[in-house]
Design a protein that fits this description.
This protein starts with a helix and ends in an 8-residue tail after the last helix. Strand 7, helix 10 and strand 8 form a beta-alpha-beta unit. It is 49% helix and 14% strand. It is of the alpha/beta class. The structure holds flavin-adenine dinucleotide (FAD).
């Protein structure tokens, strides 16, 4: 299975973008903010919260980071004006982290201020391990400046994460996820069973420390463990939420919400859809298989 996953991850970049686009449509709200607002409104109607993600990452020019800031400012205005229940999720490399950390900090600070004015929240997504320390530092700086409406993400696959959880400022707002980036063994656990155990251990630590936790997973085993911990630790309805990605296991999403838990859906949109789509397809061997067959000249229809 690991060998097949490896093969898929090596072959997907050779699939034409037009094919990737067709198969990844379910994971993306659309090209425009208006598309995203429409999707969020439907999610809100069905009892879900949302977080808006303007697709894009690893910008190489300051102007592109500034464009991303303007796009997020528009999203924040829409959240207020359209009265949708959503916050925003940002990637620091899209906001200039690899160009100039101070410039990136100023960009996130401006977004946090605009979000606070609208009573909403900025989640800083976690990217590959070359960004972990800088991301946690930037989060700590903003918390030190009094921005309580900013939260961060921890990845259970990283060997350092339990220590990072213990070093977070008090009352942190943390999304815990497995982690999507391929990392060397010295940095990350490779075995799914170990990652799951570490996930549960970190979640318990975060709940014990009084953090607000966004429990991001579609893994039934982890959901079961998380519900067990929520039952045991009783963080209260305003102490945690579940989080899932748009287009992934909507049936499971409904079951979690039916049990009375808060559930937030991650809603990506925008024209820079390619890198995000490849990551989602690699996580879905069935669809990735269709995409590869297409590459080989056979064209089964996606279901
Ligand atoms: C709200 C949210 C935010 C996230 N933010 C980050 C982040 O900031 N940084 C980061 O590194 N990672 C992030 N992730 C991704 C995360 O790290 C995992 O890679 C991803 O969630 C898959 O892990 P899983 O816990 O769902 O378990 P898995 O074992 O990967 O999946 C469990 C089951 O979910 C289903 N599933 C999972 N993915 C797909 C898919 N693409 N298509 C169809 N079915 C699928 C399958 O049935 C699978 O068996 C985020 C995930 C979520 C839900």
């Amino acid at each position: 299975m690991a060998a097949l996953d490896y093969l898929i991850s090596r072959a997907l970049p050779f699939v034409p973008r037009s094919v990737v686009r067709v198969f990844s449509r379910r994971y993306i709200a659309g090209d425009s903010l208006e598309d995203a607002v429409r999707v969020v409104r439907l999610l809100n109607r069905d009892g879900y919260l949302a977080t808006l993600d303007v697709l894009g990452e690893s910008v190489r020019r300051r102007a592109l980071a500034e464009t991303a800031v303007s796009d997020y400012m528009r999203a924040l205005r829409a959240i207020g004006e359209e009265r949708i229940d959503s916050n925003i999720s940002v990637k620091l490399t899209q906001l200039g982290l690899k160009l100039d950390a101070e410039f990136c900090l100023a960009n996130v600070r401006a977004l946090a201020r605009a979000a606070a004015e609208r009573g909403t929240f900025v989640r800083i997504d976690m990217e590959d391990s070359t960004c972990t320390t800088a991301t946690l530092d930037l989060y700590r700086t903003l918390r030190g400046e009094g921005f309580d409406n900013v939260g961060v993400v921890l990845q259970a696959c990283l060997r350092r994460t339990l220590a990072d959880a213990r070093a977070l400022p008090g009352r942190s707002n943390v999304r815990i996820c497995k982690g999507i980036y391929i990392e060397p063994r010295a940095i990350a656990f490779g075995d799914r069973r170990v990652i799951n155990k570490n996930y549960v251990r970190i979640l318990e630590e975060l709940l014990d420390r009084g953090c607000y936790v966004g429990i991001a997973t579609h893994d039934e085993e982890l959901l079961w463990e998380a519900m067990r911990l929520v039952d045991l630790k009783r963080p209260g309805a305003d102490g945690y939420e579940f989080q899932m990605l748009l287009g992934v296991d909507e049936e499971l999403r409904g079951l979690v919400r039916k049990e009375g838990h808060r559930l937030r859906v991650y809603v990506p949109y925008g024209s820079h859809w390619y890198a995000y789509s490849l990551r989602r397809l690699k996580e879905n061997p069935r669809i990735a298989g269709y995409v590869l067959m297409n590459l080989l000249g056979r064209r089964p229809a996606p279901s």
